[in-house]
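Dear support,

Our group has been running a series of protein-ligand predictions, and this particular one with fe (ii) ion is the one our PI (initials K.S.) wants archived with full inputs and outputs. We had some confusion internally about which version of the output was final, so please treat the block below as the authoritative record. The input we submitted was:
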Amino acid sequence: MATDDKSRQYPLPPSSLDSCLYTDEQQFTREIEDLFHKTWLRTFPSSDIARTNDFVIWEELDQSVVIVRLEDGSAAAWHNVCQHRGARLVEESGHCSSGRFICPWHGFIYDVSGKLRLAPLKNEFDTSRIDTLRTPPVRVEEYGGFVWICFADDTPDLKTYLGEIGTELDWFGLENFETRYRIDLSLDANWKVVVDAFNETWHVPFTHNETLSEVVRWGQAELHICDPHSWMTIPVRGLTDRAPEGADHRASHITHYLSFPNTIWSNFPTHLQTWSIWPDGPGKAKLVAYGLVGPCPDGLSEEDWARQNERDWNNFRAVTSEDARVINGWGKVSRSLGQRDYLFNRAEGRLTAFHAEIARRTSD
Ligand code: FES
Ligand SMILES: [Fe+2]
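Confirmed final output from the archive:
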């Protein structure tokens, strides 16, 4: 590959993609089974289960998983399905002070690790089945202030899975950040349209003419592909121009990461916004976004830092609703007879890499 400036900025050639891949029901099922059931998925902030026996029910992708803080400080995750006759065992997130969950149907009692502790009419069952019964566990790890789960046994551990993205994120010291903001959006579009929408910058002068185009040097983004993930650096006014010569890219740019398949970070050195995009049927997606705030930078009062964070989060909300308008417009025409191939240019190389990865994983 040539190593001229353009190739360094945009490492992949243009590509195209059949638009049916965004609407086809069978493709959607393959993506759930071959991507989402086999990769590490970020669920919610670790701080949501701060105390022993705090638990959250995570429900996406037609799955229901209970994630609990155990006494030793680790987290346990298990499928929220009673092993008697399949009831939804736990109905609401909260704190389990008794350390026991009681099935609402016939009263099987489970402990916080998902193990069956008591079954009414136990002797009327085949006791050899009852004695070792537990809800099937789900792999769980914590990283970057969030709880992650994985449904597959043969996917490598989270840090290995994240690879270069994990190394990039380590620099920020996310364990010192606080999760301060959250928004949830429902979008009328395939989940991949939403991922695509956030992984290129050249829509900025059009979609974000009012909010971002004067601030973000969108035409100078540099793309990096590290399959299955990708990231980019974006120069930004007020940060890149003030950074000392030779400063680390994470100190001098917005750095923007996709952890495959559905989690995005948009990072300033001191604070960041991060969101996951959940498929909700072929033509629907949910976006759950968090604002994370690092320690107050030197030379700034806590009050000013709080004000700045409020302003940044409000900006993020405004920018996201600009994206949502275009994304929902896509939903209106997704089944149009005018839908053809989509064309990705060199500035859309992260989309090319993303869809190539999906094709690799969903082809038989
Ligand atoms: S389904 Fe849970 S006890 Fe019967
Ligand atoms: Fe955007």
